[in-house]
């Protein structure tokens, strides 16, 4: 009887431990990264460095929010970074031409909405393959961004009200980080507690069944692509103020980071399912790696290798988990 009890206890404790590791392993990895870099380079946890990390992570988190839900629904958007670059160049071009920051921001935001409408209309409305469509629209957005500055950057002497908001702090925490935390908190509620969130994961697992159940799948996809275009444009606007310039090719640096954050974030909470909390944790991990690597003197190629390995791992985890889940359906 004693042996039986011990076996039962062991059998219960092992799944509990595995479940805990699966759900919270990414958060432990983020904590480990911060502790390791703080130990190797104490300046890593200085107030100025923490502030810079949180600001850059906040901009990235805004850009990747729409992408997270699109991938969670079983689709893809590889135009997000080019839309951000286009919004960045539109704002810089208009400000440099003397139109002022409010009108320039409106122009950048409008570009994001337009590309979201195009992506959503072609993918959800005409049922064209999302990868092909977003590669095409991303190329178009990137080409327009380069054309605005004739292939070069546009420097700005003032960052306007956007710069004031972006560099406002609450203690050592940027105000934008607090805003992003609230947005992601609301997104988590939508994702976990509203019907809309449940539809996202159901669409990825068995879209035909969701359609038969009367769920407006195409309308949801349409809205998701508009969301992705909009938040990408907002991130591009913030980058204009953060860099005090328009950079036509800035989107390329966010491509791998965006996919890595979303897919690696699929390790957290919902194994194999991209979710907003996982994306936020992965963004913090990438920000820590970028800052820590810079302080340690890593070359750009070394940082790219680490990013590539993380992306490969994230893809492997998500694909494996999705195949396992479908095998049980």
Automatic annotation (TrEMBL):
Keywords: Cell inner membrane, Cell membrane, Membrane, Transmembrane, Transmembrane helix, Transport. InterPro entries: ABC_transp_permease. The chain crosses the membrane at residues 20-40, 61-87, 99-118, 130-150, 170-190, 220-239, 251-269, 276-298, 304-321. The keyword Ribosomal protein does not apply. It is a multi-pass membrane protein. It comes from the Bacteria. The keyword Transport applies. Pfam families: BPD_transp_2 (PF02653). Coiled coil: none annotated. It is found in: Cell membrane. CDD domains: TM_PBP1_transp_AraH_like. Its main location: membrane. PANTHER family: ABC TRANSPORTER PERMEASE PROTEIN YPHD-RELATED, ABC TRANSPORTER PERMEASE PROTEIN YPHD-RELATED-RELATED. This is Ribose transport system permease protein.
């Amino acid at each position: 009887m004693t042996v039986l009890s011990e076996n039962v206890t062991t059998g219960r404790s092992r799944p509990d431990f595995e479940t805990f590791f699966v759900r919270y392993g990414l958060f432990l990895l983020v904590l480990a990264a911060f502790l390791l870099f703080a130990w190797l380079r104490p300046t890593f946890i200085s107030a100025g460095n923490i502030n810079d990390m949180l600001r850059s992570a906040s901009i990235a988190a805004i850009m990747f929010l729409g992408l997270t839900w699109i991938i969670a629904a079983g689709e893809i958007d590889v135009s997000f970074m080019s839309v951000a670059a286009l919004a960045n160049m539109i704002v810089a071009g208009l400000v440099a031409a003397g139109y002022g920051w409010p009108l320039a921001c409106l122009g950048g935001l409008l570009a994001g909405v337009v590309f979201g409408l195009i992506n959503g209309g072609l993918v959800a409305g005409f049922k064209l393959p999302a990868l092909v469509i977003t590669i095409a629209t991303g190329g178009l957005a990137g080409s327009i961004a380069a054309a605005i500055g004739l292939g070069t950057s546009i420097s700005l002497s003032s960052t306007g009200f956007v710069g004031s908001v972006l560099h406002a702090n609450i203690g050592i925490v940027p105000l934008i980080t607090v805003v992003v935390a609230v947005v992601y908190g609301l997104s988590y509620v939508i994702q976990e507690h509203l019907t809309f969130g449940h539809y996202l994961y159901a669409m990825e697992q068995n879209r035909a069944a969701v359609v038969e159940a009367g769920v407006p799948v195409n309308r949801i996809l349409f809205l998701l692509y508009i969301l992705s275009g909009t938040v990408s444009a907002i991130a591009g606007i913030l980058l204009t103020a953060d860099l005090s310039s328009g950079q036509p090719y800035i989107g390329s640096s966010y491509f791998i980071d965006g996919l890595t954050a979303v897919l690696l974030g699929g390790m957290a909470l919902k194994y194999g399912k991209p979710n907003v909390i996982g994306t936020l944790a992965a963004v913090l991990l990438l920000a820590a790696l970028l800052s820590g690597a810079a302080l340690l003197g890593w070359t750009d190629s070394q940082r790219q290798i680490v990013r590539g390995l993380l992306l490969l791992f994230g893809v492997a985890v998500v694909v494996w988990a999705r195949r396992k889940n479908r095998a049980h359906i």
